[in-house]
Structure formats: C-alpha cells, structure tokens
Amino acid sequence: MTNTEPITTTMPAMPTQQPSPTTPTSPATSTPKFSKHIILTTYPGQSGIEPVPLEWGAPDAKSRGPVVVSRSGNLVKRRNAIGAHGGSYSIYNALAIAAGDLDANFRPDFRNSEPTFNFPSQKAWADKTKIVSMDPYGHDIVNQFKEELEAGWDIRPTMAVTRANMKLAEIADDVKNGLLEVDGSILVDSSGEVRVTKVAAEPVWYLPGVAERFGVDEGTLRRTLFEHTGGSYPELITRPDLKIFLPPIGGLTVYIFGPPERIADENVKLALRIHDECNGSDVFQSDICTCRPYLAFGIREAIREAQNGGSGVVIYFRKEGRALGEVIKYLVYNARKRGGDTADKYFTRTENIAGVRDMRFQALMPDILHWLGIKKIDRMLSMSNMKYDAIVNSGIEIIERIPIPEEMIPSDSRVEIDAKINSGYFTTGKQISATELAQVQGRGWEKWEDIAH
Q1: How many other C-beta atoms can be found within 10 angstroms of the C-beta atom of residue 38?
Q2: For residue range 44-64, what is the model confidence (pLDDT) as tens digits?
Q3: Of these residues, 292, 360, 379, 401, which one is catalytic?
Q4: Measuring CA to CA, which residue among 68, 12, 18, 8 is closest to residue 35?
C-alpha cells in the first residue's frame, strides 16, 4: 500500500437544539436514524472489527462466504466489503432514507424473487482470474445463505434472472420485410414481440483481480480509486484486508434469445452482441452514430440464430458515451459541429475534452461471458478490436466477426464509422485512407443557433 495521511476514526455530532445534520430524524417519528458518532472508517485489528470470512475463488458459495457491506447495527464491524449495494442507485437509496421514506434498518423479503432459470455452475465461478468484476453467486443468495438471512444478516443479491416479452420496431420491420419469421415461440407475432430471458448484474470488484487486469499493483488501484472519487471510500486505504469493492457505477443486462441452457452448449452456434450504452441513439434514435442500428441488428441476428436451433445473446453495458458520460459526449458534439465535423478529426475532438478517446476499457467485460459458460462465439456482432482482443485473450474463441451492414448506417454517422475503421476497427468493406477521411463530413446544425436568437 502507498503511504497515506492518518484518518480520524470517529467524529462527535455537533451539539444543537435543532436536529443535527449528523443525526437526521424522520418527519413521521422524529427519532434519530443514527448514533451520535459518525464512523468515518475502520482499521484491521481494531477492537471489535471481525469481518465475515470471504475467500474469492472458493469452489462454492458456502465456502466462499457472503458479501456483506451493510453498516447498520453491529454489521459495521462484520463488513467484508467496501461500498454499498445498488451501484449508482445506492445514492437514491440514501436519499430515500434521509427523506424518511425508507427505514435505515429495512430488510428485503426475497420470497418468490428467485431466478426463473437456474444457470448451471461453471468452473469460472471458482476461478479468481476469470471473474473479478461481479459476484458469481450473487443471483442465488436466497438458497446459498438461507441460514444467515433467517438470522437477520443483511445480505443482498447483486444479480437477478427473470423473463419477459420485449418489442422493437425494427424487428417488426424485419418480419414485414421477410428477414425474420414468426415462430410463435421466440418471435411471438408480427408486431415484433419477442420472448427473452434477462439477467441483471451489479458490479462487485475483487480488487486484486481488477488490478491485475489493468496491469497495476493493488495499492495503486486502491489509492487512485480513493483520490478520484473525492475520498469517498476511505477504507480503500485503511482496510487493505477488505478485498471486495462495490463501486457506485452502472451494471449490465444480458438478453438471451432462445432456451438459456443452449448458451454454454458448444455443439450449437452462438451469436453475440456486446453493446455499450448510448442513450441518445439507443432510446432517442439520434442519427449521429451507429449505436441503435447496430443494437437492432444484433437483436435480429440473435433471434435468427436462436430460431435456427442455436443461441442468441445481447449484453447491454451501462457505459454511456464510451464511459465518459452524456455531458462529456454532448460537449464533444458541440466541438465537432462548430469546428467542422470531419472524420479525420473525430477522435481529436474527444481527446481535447476528455483526455482520452475511450474510457470503456474492455478488460472486465469478458467476466459475464465466463459466468454464462460461453466457450466460443460463432458470430461476434461487433467491429471493436478492444472487445475482440479482451474476449480472445480471456480464452474464448471467436470464429466470425460481423460488421454492421452498410445499408443500416445512418447518413450523419459516416464521420464516426469511417474514423473508427481508419483507426483499425474490423470491417469487410473498404478501408478509408487518411486523405479520404478528411473529405468525410457530418451534417451541421443548419443555423439552429441563429434561429434560437
């Protein structure tokens, strides 16, 4: 570990005749929610500190142990992980408690919340080099830690498995145009309604494994996470014995087309789309990028593979704007449009504002594939070399790579796609030279700013 300044363990609440900020009260009961002292951090070996044993990479959930992050009651002394459940939603959870809408000591009732499909255990679940960014047993805590739950332990799932019907306009168009057939089982009807199994996962990081993936030592990773989250997690520094961190970021969703048991079957074909969030295109269908079209294409090909007796999977990661965020993305849009939106300057505009062209860093992405039991991918619906390299380097074979069809590329997204192809993205089409790249220009705003005045 790197050297750090001493951190105060406790801080007394300020005496006041009004409810103190350190001891907020419920509007309904006026009962303090917290004790009069704030525990800023803890230290290994400190009196009363006894983390619940947890051994990442153990052969099963029981011997591995549960992930415990609750600070309520005496659990603050038994925690074996840093952070809070819910990813970015942990902040909303805190707001609900502060507002008095949620009891700070609430315990969920998990009856009937079990998975709709019991994924068979995979060797990777007990391999601390294969899965480092999610809890491989996080979907089954109701069964694996029943005794602890009944004893009052605050242990929560970090994964959920359900099933639903989804509807996409592009799929209805594919049926109308004869590109897909209604089978009544996977593709239910001509409106584009599709049956799907869904898996949601929140991030759970095994810090030594995450550090190794990024080629840094654990101390550097912990110090950097502490410093660049505004010092939000002091136990990253003071508790080197705690190896698990639940970061406040978005997770992922797996969409499975066809029977889920086919995913890990190497005897059938698998079509896979790894998709990183792009709200402007995925939801609102902006034509400045290929995100929504590629997502729709991936879903179409996943359905088609499932209908042919194979399996189709689309995995949606919450990494908005190349993990730069939507504010940065829109600032880049402005710089592109006002500075002359040409493909040769596409990445430069992002680097000028964000410092890098992409912060998705796909090193952790293959974990979900190993959890699903995927050993090979017959058709990889992606042009990204970062995704390809991460998957192949993790030991999963990719047989064929499928670029987005030319006819599905929006007119104003040529700047993006041609810049990516020139930078090395996979394509079966024409390679764009540097000279040609400067001639690829995006559509402007057509004096919209002038109209606003």
Answers
A1: 14
A2: 988 889 999 999 999 999 999
A3: 360
A4: 12
